[in-house]
Every structure is written in structure tokens, then in C-alpha cells.
Amino acid sequence: MTQHERLTSLDAFRGATIAAMMLVNNAGDWGHVYPQLEHAEWNGWTFTDWIFPFFLFIVGVAMTMSFARRIERGDDARKLLLNAARRSVIIFVLGLILNGAPFFNLSTIRIPGVLQRIAVCYFIVSVIVLFTKTRKAQNFWLIGFLAVYWLMMKFIPVPGIGAGVLEQGKNFSAYIDSLLLSGHMYIYTQTWDPEGIISTLPAIATTLFGVQTGYFLRSPLSREEKTVWMFVAGFVLLFIGVVLDMWLPINKNIWTSSYSIFTAGWALICFAVLYWLIDVKGFKLKTPLGRWYTPFVMLGMNAIAVYFVGSLIGKLSISFMLSQPDGKSMMLKTYIYQHFFAPLLTNPFHASLLYAMMYVLGSFLLAWVMWKKQWFVKV
Q: How many domains in the chain?
């Protein structure tokens, strides 16, 4: 890979991940959702549980590529860190805006969130990448985050409960959330947050898995060799994650160390497939929009912007109420779904999925307009 080459497969992977986020976050009727399009209730995993760690993995890969290019052109570590801090603050604030919209009640606003976790992981990993001298040292940090989190969850006692309990709301991560984030957590859990403070540690490790992949992609190996070794590494991580599941269950809600390793394995395998198809074999099946992967590249080039706009629209659709003839109120989203989607299909699961698919289509449309206008939002 040349010094200034852009990985089309990485943009496509990012776009596919954002499309999947839009799909699983916007069911028409949450009472009728196919199991793979919901998070696992607690331990275990579904397709939905892959999506967030995939994005953090991509952040790590992209960070490595970006930092390497900028260092090659003469930027120093301090300048890169200031830029990373600026981007992290912007992403964090965007997350707070999503949590608060449209009424912004600061006394109860949720502080953690998806964008907030991305911001924190991006900044901390930036510090590690810019100020560690070797990949070996970075791997030490990666393993350290996983090990420390595991030890805390297993051996630090929670008052009134004890140590090693991993049940909902009774584990060490939930305890720290209740101490530091009381009144500012996820509305559906209230006493703990799925993007909480302590569980961000293994999420940082997920990002570091991406960093190591980025370094590997810049190695002098051939593209074919890189593809093979990414598959090998991915399957090794899957095996390790499944084995560790016997002692520390794979769990997205508290982002267990086994979950971080397991999903990094899946991310490597999925990325390797796209890398082989797009950047190695150059498979260029034509569609009305260009090559088969072009829509995902469009989405990937404006991932944060499309996610923010799509999520904001979704938030507004459940915040604004419409008065009905019987005097009752109905959410705007519910009105749209019941009047325009539910009547189309007799199976409510199909109708709910159709609504989500139309949401994804809208995301692609926004990305296409931005692509045509050459609007690339860099935060």
C-alpha cells in the first residue's frame, strides 16, 4: 500500500456499519422486531451487537492511516493531539445535543451515549498512539485495558452485593455509573448506562484492535498476504472470545473483555472480506449509482453527519405529538408508521422492518446529495 493511498474498502465498511446502525435503531414498531435486529437481552450476541464495536474498530484503523500520513508530511504529535482533542469535543457535544433534543432538560439529560463513547475512545487512543514509541507498547495498553476491566468486574466488591456479580444493575460498572451519573443515564435503564464510565475501558481496547490492523495494512506484505492474515487473526480472536466466554460472558451491555475480543474478530473478518473484494480483486459490479459498493462509500465519507441527522430526525419523530380526533395524542413516528407502513403488509414484523429500511434509504439519499455537492463534513 502506498503512503497516500485511500482504502475504499474501509470507507465502504464504515458506510455499511452506519447503514446497519440506522436499520436497527429505527424499527417502525418495537413490539415487532426480528431478534437479530435487537440487542441481546443480556449475555450473548446478535447481529445488532456487532455494529457499535465495528465502528470503533474502524475509528482505530482510520486513525492510524490519518496520523501516519500527517506525520509523513511534517505534522508533530502536539499538533495532531490538539486536532484530536478538538474533534473529540465536537463529537461529544453532538452526542449531548442528540440526548437533549428537542427540550434540553439539563437536570436529567443523559451524559453518556454512542457519540460520547466514540469521542472518549478516539481521544484516549490518540494519546496512546501519538505518545507510545512502539506497537508493542500499544499492545500492552490494549491488553491492560481488557485485563484491568476484567479484574475490576470480578474482584472489586459492590456494597450490599459483593464481588464478581455480573447481573443487570448489580455489577461494578453499574455501581460506578450510579455514583457518578445519577439522574443522567439511559432512560430505559436509569440505574446504569450501556455506554457508562468503566465499560468504556474495553471499548478503548476495541479501538486499539483497529489501530493494530491499521499498522498491519501499512506493512510491506502483499495485499493477498494481508487478506489471509486478517482472516487468520479474526478467527483466532473469535476463538479466544468464545473460550473466555466461559469465565466472563460475552455481553454488549457491559462491554465485557470477551465481547471486545470476540467482536474485534468479527470486525477483522468482515473487513477482510470487503478488502479482498474491493481493494484486492477490484470486483466492480455496476449499479445505477456506480459500483456495487459506491452507496456505502458515499455513506462512509459522511458517517458522523448522516448518523447525527438521522438520529436527530428519529428523536424528533418520537418527541412531537399529534392530536387525534378522539382527543388523544400520538407520536409523529407512530402516526407515520400506522398510516403509511402498517397497512402495506399484513405481517407486523415485515411492516416494522420496511419502516426501518425506508429510514436507511433516506440515509443513503442524504449521503448521495452530500456526495454530489462534494460536501464532506469533517468533525
A: 2
How many Å apart are CA 346 and CA 351, to the nearest integer? 8
Residues spanned by the domain of 138? 48-283
Q: Does residue 179 sit within a domain?
A: yes
Question: For cell 478467527, what's the residue?
Answer: 235
Residue 101 above 70 pLDDT? Answer: yes
Q: Are 195 and 112 in contact (CB under 8 A)?
A: yes
Instruction: Compute the mean pLDDT over every residue in the chain, rounded to the nearest whole number.
Output: 93
DSSP string covering 226-281 = HHHHHHHHHHHHHHHHHHHTTTS--BTTTT-HHHHHHHHHHHHHHHHHHIIIIIIS
Residue 156 CB: number of other CB atoms within 10 A? 14
* Cα Rg of the chain (Å, integer): 21
Does the pTM of the predicted model rise above 0.90? yes
Q: Is residue 370 part of a domain?
A: yes
The last residue of one of the domains, among 231, 257, 283, is 283
The reply to whether 82 and 16 lie within a common domain is: no
Is 294 within the bounds of a domain? yes
Q: How far apart are CA 302 and CA 11, in angstroms?
A: 9
pLDDT digits (tens, 9 = 90+) for 30-45: 999 999 999 999 999 9
Instruction: For residue 67, list its beta bridge partners.
Output: none
Clarify whether residues 261 and 294 are in a common domain: no
What is the rounded CA–CA span in Å between residue 148 and residue 33? 36
Q: What is the pLDDT of residues 289-315, one digit of tens each?
A: 568 889 999 999 999 999 999 999 999
Could you tell me the pLDDT band of residue 326, with boundaries at 50, 70 and 90? confident
CA-closest candidate to residue 144, choices 124, 162, 159, 168: 124
Pairwise CA distance, residues 237 & 114, whole Å: 24
Same domain, 232 and 347: no
Domain end, chosen from 267, 283, 299, is at 283
CB 348 within 8 A of CB 342: yes
Element (H, E) at 286: strand 286-287
